[in-house]
Design brief:
This protein has about 70 residues and is mostly helical. It has a domain of about 45 residues. It is built from 5 helices and no strands. The chain is elongated.
């Protein structure tokens, strides 16, 4: 089963639940995660951030903007 399907099924499951049930299933509360829970999850999954993108040169940005398979088709 794909990740998208699992994600969709989870959304459908929780769409009809009451908040206390969702909190129980997710192991949290209305106040959010405790500091200890956050630390454990950061160790397991890593930081919740985007990877920094290296700075591109102007030529690289122009190349990405204009050299596109869809432009060739048009």
């Amino acid at each position: 089963m794909s990740k998208a399907t699992l994600f969709d099924n989870r959304i459908k499951k929780y769409a009809y639940c009451k908040p206390p049930e969702i909190y129980r299933d997710l192991g949290t509360s209305a106040l959010g995660l405790s500091k200890e829970q956050v630390d454990v999850m950061r160790e397991r999954y890593g930081k919740n951030s985007f990877q920094e993108r290296k700075t591109d040169t102007t030529i690289q940005r122009l190349r990405r903007a204009f050299i596109n398979p869809f432009h060739v088709i048009l």
